[in-house]
Amino acid sequence: MSESSGIHPLRDGGLGELLSCAPPLLDTTLDQLRTLLVVRETGSALRAARLLGREQSSVQKQMDTLNRNYQDLCGEVLTVKQGRGKDVLFTPTGEAITRLAGATLSEWLAEIHSSRRRLGSTLTVGTTEFTLKTVSRAWARLSEEFQRREVEFRVVHVRTKDVWSRLESKSVDLVCGTIVAVPGDETRLRPYDVIELARGRPVLLTNLSEQELPLSIVTSSRLPEIPLVVPSTGLIADFLGHWYGPNFRDRLDIVADIDDISYGLSLLKSGLARGCMIVTRSIGDRSRAEGLRVIELRNDLEAAPEIMTGAFVSKEDRVRYEPRHPLNLLWAAMREEAAARAEAAER
Asked: How many Å apart are CA 341 and CA 218, to the nearest integer?
């Protein structure tokens, strides 16, 4: 059988080995494998039963069947009871079969999801909290058609630091978020179609008084002189990496490491950390009314990164889907929304 057929009957053994599979192996179901995985995660049939919404006796019966079948197949059971209150012990064969079960179910689910995406049965969009409204307005243009076609439309929260990983893993069909863009260097964006919604440079947000920091403008080369609150990863970390390299933490005066911008804002407002945080201008403008001060941040270094907010989608997906595919319809609606937004800004 050819490789292009997509079916590889055990590769080395060929069709004969596939047809001669032992009955205990053929009797193993995906439901049994799922139960095995849940027991492995929870440690007992009782706790697995609670998660699965079943009787303990039902889960135990499946485990007994698996143990009996794999004793016949391999000469070793998968699990051994250790007494009341103790977790089930997984044998070496049990550990191996559990890993295989996890990979098998993951591949099945991934392939089913891929087929549903290709056929337009489901559409998943990732947004940050700052781009959710834009996606909502675009979706409103299509909601009636999507409901008529029974398209499962899902929106998932994507943190700014995860925008690139979500794009590269294709865990969502479209991402609406904010990235660091370097004018003239579009290498990383080349595989994607982009609808640009906004572009600009960040500002400094601070709880330092004018006496403590008597500046209205700070240049990027002077950042090492200023106490900073910095996220461990994400947009601002990428920004600083462009200016000061991957070891920027060794060159800056970092008074607090944070996981996200929201916590950093709370930290500055509380006064527990005294310093500055690099944020987008929109966040800075919103924070003025909360007792924080905005200082302009101007670049005087060779690298000139900018913050770009936009919608991103795989060019490959857009081309291989027909024009009425939900992804392409949403992309067209996003373009219309971006055009309406630009027109409103010019008024």
From this structure: 31
Tell me the whole-structure pTM to 2 decimals: 0.70
Phi-psi label, residue 87: left if phi above 0, alpha if psi -120 to 50, beta otherwise: beta
Q: Which residues make Cβ contacts (< 8 Å) with residue 66, sequence separation at least 6?
A: 28, 32, 36, 78, 79
Burial of 177 (0-12, 13-18, 19+ CB in 10 A): buried
CA distance 218 to 205: 11
- Spell out the residues 6+ positions from residue 49 whose beta carbon is closer than 8 angstroms to its own: 55, 56, 58, 59
**Hey, what are 150's tokens?**
């029974």
At 11, which amino acid appears? R
DSSP 215-249: -SEEEGGGGGGSEEEEESSSHHHHHHHHHH-TTGG
| pLDDT tens for the 347 residues of the chain, in order | 334 445 455 555 567 777 888 888 888 999 999 999 999 999 999 999 999 999 999 999 999 999 999 999 999 999 998 877 789 999 999 999 999 999 999 999 888 888 888 888 999 999 988 888 889 999 999 999 999 999 999 999 998 888 888 888 888 999 999 998 888 777 888 999 999 988 888 999 999 999 999 988 999 999 999 999 998 888 888 889 989 988 999 999 999 999 888 899 999 999 999 999 999 888 888 888 788 999 999 999 887 888 899 999 999 999 999 999 999 999 999 999 888 887 777 76
User: Contact at 8 Å (CB) between 222 and 253?
Assistant: no
Q: Which of 313, 311, 294 is nearest to 201 (CA)?
A: 294
List the one residue out of 346, 5, 330, 11 whose CA is nearest residue 195: 330
Residues 96 and 92: their CA atoms lie apart, in Å, by: 6
